[in-house]
Design brief:
Elements (H helix, E strand, L loop, with lengths): L2 H10 L3 E5 L8 H6 L3 E6 L13 E5 L4 E5 L22 H13 L5 H13 L5 H15 L5 E4 L9 E3 L35 H8 L3 H8 L4
Parallel strand pairs: 1-2, 1-6, 2-5
Antiparallel strand pairs: 3-4
InterPro entries: WbqC
Pfam family, one: WbqC
Organism: Algoriphagus oliviformis
Length: 222
């Protein structure tokens, strides 16, 4: 599916049946705006790991700054399949991430309702980065009440009906250079000015049941 066809679907509000995605770590609002309305999300365990990507990092808002949380991986072998990337638990990263999330959102209105879902996944000590991201995305879709289902797919030629956004959402370029996400402000815990495109955690903990509506409104319809 071409970009033009994608936005034609958005404008007409007709369903986007399938979107091929990367499995990001606690994805950004841009990611969820891009998949808004999808019925099926195709993920590919054989896709290659990309350094300096959102595959192992996410952004949260603390009292005085925006913090990037990164998951350390075993070794530095570039371009290996995602399903082979192993998480380095020798660096005790879960404690750092959990402490950061609690510091950032512990007083957010919906923190106590949603945090246990994520805490349990962190505590499971999943060895595979790909599997960890898949579990986290599954929980996020559930909490957003999204009808989208995740399907593990094999490498090969995609149908012309599939919109492929793999490799497009990356930290090296601002979201404004892409056509997926138009920020819709909501009340955040810290700061005077709205900080767009943080981790989905920011929206879930701050907006609760309104998160799904905000994401729908944030999806660009050009």
């Amino acid at each position: 599916m071409t970009i033009g066809t994608y936005f034609l679907h958005r404008k007409s509000k007709s369903p986007l049946s399938q979107i091929a995605i990367d499995l990001h770590y606690l994805p950004s609002l841009e990611f969820f705006a891009a998949i808004a309305g999808a019925e099926e999300l195709l993920v590919f365990p054989q896709d290659r790991y990309q350094r300096q990507s959102y595959l192992n990092r996410t952004r949260i808002r603390l009292a005085n700054k925006v913090e990037t949380l990164s998951i350390p991986i075993v070794g530095r072998r570039p371009r290996i399949p995602m399903e082979e990337v192993r998480i380095d638990y020798g660096q005790k990263w879960q404690a750092v991430h959990l402490r950061g999330i609690q510091s950032a959102y512990g007083k957010a209105p919906f923190f106590e309702f949603f945090f246990p879902y994520f805490h349990d996944i962190f505590e499971s000590e999943e060895e595979s980065l790909w599997r960890l991201n898949q579990k986290l995305l599954t929980v996020c879709l559930k909490l957003l009440r999204s009808p989208a289902r995740i399907t593990v797919a094999e490498e090969g030629r995609l149908s012309s009906e599939v919109f492929d956004i793999r490799g497009q959402i990356e930290p090296g370029r601002p979201f404004s250079e892409r056509n997926f996400y138009h920020p819709v402000p909501y009340t955040q815990l810290f700061g005077v000015n709205f900080e767009p495109n943080l981790s989905i955690l920011d929206l879930l903990f701050c907006a609760g049941p309104e998160a799904g509506r905000i994401l729908q409104e944030s999806a660009k319809k050009q």
